Amino acid sequence: MYMIKKEAIVEKQKKLISFVQDFGFSYSDVNKMLRNKDVRVNGKVERQNVVLNMGDNVTFFYSPDMLEKKFEVVFESEDALIVYKSAGIETAGENGLEKVLNAIAVHRLDRNTEGLMVFAKNEKTTKILENAFKNHKIHKFYVTEVVGKFQTDKTYDANLLKYSEKAEVKIFQNQVKGSVPISTKIKTVKAGEESSVLEVELLTGKTHQIRAHLAFLGHAIVGDGKYGKNENNKKFQQNRQKLACFMLKFDFLGIESLDFSTFKKFPKWLNKKLIEKF
Asked: Is residue 102 part of a domain?
């Protein structure tokens, strides 16, 4: 059977199974890889759930069907595809969704963010959709669970500075050298003492914007290993961030199948009673 190879460098200490799960695989998927000797740490086959340290090199092999069950086609026309991507799946690259779908992603979701994505099937549609995102004619809405009680509904403005070498960003209230302005519209769906569920609309779409902005506001996303705190993630028993793009709204684009359309799909971790409030 044809196997796909994935190689990654560990950014912070973590157990092996949890690390591989972050790429979109279930606990049973990873255990199967370990049993089949399909996981290597620093070049050596590893069959145990060892602790990984920063800088370790992890290589694992998996069958294409493991990846294919990690997304769902929500809509398809002759011009475009709308797919619900699971957390841990890459969009671009040798083993990304673009290659699996034979289509072009016209926007991005973080690897560990799940949700709706738009793909173009031809060059003409690619240009139309890319321009539509650039001109804010496609509106993206997210649902997330954050730490603490969040109550103030409004549009939050700040400035984002990207550190490419660290693969992370930092938020500042005032402009600093190299930063870009961001706007994040937040609505509270449920405010709890320990955690809150929010609807977030991206008014600007920058790298890690929602994750970093919410952490800056003092309400990191539950399960976020980069911008959240380990003690909170352990408390909630989450090793994947609870963040999903659940809705896309299209203005007039000149693509008949998408003009003035709305697509919704909620993550499985969201309580059904809460879905009724969206």
From this structure: no
Residue range 235-258, pLDDT digits in tens: 998 878 999 999 999 999 999 999
Q: How far apart are CA 83 and CA 24, in angstroms?
A: 15
Sign of CA dihedral 13, 16, 18, 21: positive
Residue 189: CATH number of its domain: 3.30.2350.10
Interval 174-187 mean pLDDT: 96
How much is the pTM?
A: 0.81
What is the rounded CA–CA span in Å between residue 153 and residue 264? 22
Q: How many domains does the chain have?
A: 2
C-alpha–C-alpha distance, residues 216 and 182, integer Å: 13
Last residue of some domain: 21, 41, 63?
63
Closest listed residue to residue 243, CA positions, set 209, 216, 273 = 209
Contact criterion met (CB below 8 Å) for 199 and 191: no
> Helix %, strand %, coil % for the chain, to 5?
20, 35, 45
Whether 165 contacts 178, CB under 8 Å: no
Which DSSP letter does residue 177 get? T
Range of the domain at 211: 142-244
CA distances from 198 to 117, 154, 170, 209 (A): 20, 12, 21, 15
Structure tokens at 57: 């090199």
Residue 125 to residues 23, 130, 205, 251: CA-CA distances in angstroms? 29, 8, 20, 15
